[in-house]
Design goal:
Layout: H1 2-14, E1 25-26, E2 43-44, E3 47-48, E4 50-51, E5 56-57, E6 60-61, H2 69-83
Parallel strand pairs: 1-4
Antiparallel strand pairs: 2-3, 5-6
Length: 86
């Protein structure tokens, strides 16, 4: 994966695009619960890419098994808080 990240970084640089190393995270999607704690050693331009169990993509909180439970919990909390005028 590091090789692919390096290729992406080079492509971005050649096309005057910016690769946001601070916002880039990774998560593993799978149905095998044994791999939940697995961590990878990925980096781009010397910056380690951090693991995020529930990354947000286009406003949707994702999880490793794509159940959308973290997203639904977050939305429910916002709705109840808004109704109770928190």
């Amino acid at each position: 994966m590091n090789k692919d990240l390096s290729i992406l970084h080079t492509y971005y640089h050649q096309n005057r695009l910016q690769f946001s190393k601070e916002k880039t995270v990774y998560v593993l999607y799978h149905l095998n619960t044994r791999d939940v704690g697995r961590r990878l050693n990925n980096s781009v331009d010397g910056k380690t890419i951090e693991f995020e169990p529930n990354p947000t993509y286009l406003g949707v909180k994702l999880d490793w098994s794509l159940t959308f439970k973290p997203h639904l919990t977050s939305v429910r909390q916002k709705v109840f808080c808004h109704a109770a005028r928190c």
